[in-house]
């Protein structure tokens, strides 16, 4: 925890990493779709799923930044820190369970 931490530079670096993620995920998805299409496999569902996953990663990174800002303001290993960690763990667990479903197709 460091309530006086200047996060402006860190935020810019975080955005740069987000840009790299988005670019690489789009590139990987296009490559996967091209490979599947070349073998005659249908790609519509995979394309939709890939776009959804890209958005999920973007949202998760946004929430991670917001959580980091909250944690930076709290004394390390305080009761408030522990509560925030437990909330983050619970949310991550729920999202993970929701994503681990067998999708049709």
Query: Structural class per helix/strand content?
Result: mainly alpha
Bulk shape: elongated
Major sheet: none
Low-confidence residue ranges: none
The share of residues in extended strands comes to: under 5%
Radius of gyration: 18 Å
Q: Count up the helices.
A: 3
The overall pLDDT, averaged over residues, is: 85
Helix amount: over 70%
Give me the count of strands.
0
N- and C-termini, Cα separation: 46 Å
Architecture overview:
The chain is elongated, with a radius of gyration of 18 Å. Helix content is 77%, strand content 0%. The mean pLDDT is 85. The protein is an all-alpha fold and 105 residues long. α1 packs antiparallel against α2.
Short description:
The chain is an all-alpha fold.
Topology (SSEs and partners):
Elements: H1 8-38, H2 44-72, H3 79-99
Keywords:
105 residues; single chain; 3 helices; mainly alpha
């Amino acid at each position: 925890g460091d309530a006086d931490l200047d996060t402006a530079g860190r935020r810019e670096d975080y955005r740069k990493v987000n840009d790299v993620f988005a670019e690489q995920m789009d590139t990987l998805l296009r490559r996967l779709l091209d490979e599947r299409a070349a073998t005659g496999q249908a790609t519509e569902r995979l394309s939709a799923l890939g776009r959804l996953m890209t958005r999920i990663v973007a949202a998760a990174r946004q929430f991670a930044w917001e959580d980091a800002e909250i944690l930076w303001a709290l004394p390390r290993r305080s009761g408030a820190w522990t509560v925030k960690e437990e909330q983050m763990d619970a949310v991550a667990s729920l999202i993970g369970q929701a994503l681990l479903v067998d999708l049709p197709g």
